[in-house]
Amino acid sequence: MPELPEVEALAHHLRQNAAGRTVTRVDVASMTVLKTVSPAWTELHGRQVSTAARFGKHLDLDCDGLHLVTHLARAGWLRWSDSLAPAPPRPGKGPIALRVHLDGPGFDLTEAGTKKGLAVWIVEDPATVPSIARLGPDALGVDRTRLAELFAGRTERLKTALTDQSLIAGIGNAYSDEIMHAARLSPYATAGKLGDDALDRLAEAMREVLTDAVSRSVGQDAARLKGEKRSGLRVHARTGLPCPVCGDTVREISFTDKSFQYCPTCQTGGKPLADRRMSRLLK
């Protein structure tokens, strides 16, 4: 899933390559991605792209006051092209959900797999998008003091708290694993019971992991961002490999539709966490 660093890099790419260009046509290949009816997508035609921005994990393309807001969900992506085919994509055929033609280049919003979550809104104000209206403070702006305020009294596990977009915006499954590993904290720690030292480490890890990922991602071609993300990960998606810090084997906890990874030595005092999926199977 594209998270804060990748979406920030996509916004930067659009500011560099799309700003100042005119939207000549929008092709909708999958009507299910559109979450708004009015204004119609055709109202984007003829508008000049002003800028691009990010709200949490949402990407916003400002077209002279009319906004094309996208949430790429788990398997969505933006595929930039210096020259798009003039023929519109065939509805229901292939991964393309929506295509934006500019005066020369353009881009496709694509989604792989059968489980669809890609969402597009066309609005006059991004704040009217329900999932943006519910966002908590952006993760890049959360310091140690604010983090303590946000976690005060929280009873959920740290993994859950870090990925709750209404609490902190922008962190997903991958970077929450990386942040907890860097902070040497268990995914099962209770968010509201972290001590001062743990909060210090967590705030520093959030800042370092996210700013490093943004610096590595911004300026990359959109096509290279996924590979850049994978290359910087220490524990996420590295099940069975040695931890680059201590050499212990990276472990995994699996659920129905997702999993997360951690290092027992670095994060849980050397004790592997119970995989609840396996526990259920053994009952």
From TrEMBL:
Cofactor(s) listed: Zn(2+)
Domain of life: Bacteria
Natural source organism: Amycolatopsis suaedae
GO biological process: base-excision repair
Designated name of the protein: Fpg/Nei family DNA glycosylase
Entry keywords, A to Z: DNA damage, DNA repair, DNA-binding, Glycosidase, Hydrolase, Lyase, Metal-binding, Multifunctional enzyme, Zinc, Zinc-finger
Domain Formamidopyrimidine-DNA glycosylase catalytic: 2-93
Domain FPG-type: 234-268
Membership in a protein family: Belongs to the FPG family.
A GO molecular function held by the record: damaged DNA binding
Matching InterPro entries: FPG_cat, FPG_N, H2TH_FPG, Ribosomal_uS13-like_H2TH, Znf_DNA_glyclase/AP_lyase, Znf_FPG/IleRS
PANTHER family assigned: FORMAMIDOPYRIMIDINE-DNA GLYCOSYLASE (PTHR22993)
Reaction equations catalysed: Hydrolysis of DNA containing ring-opened 7-methylguanine residues, releasing 2,6-diamino-4-hydroxy-5-(N-methyl)formamidopyrimidine
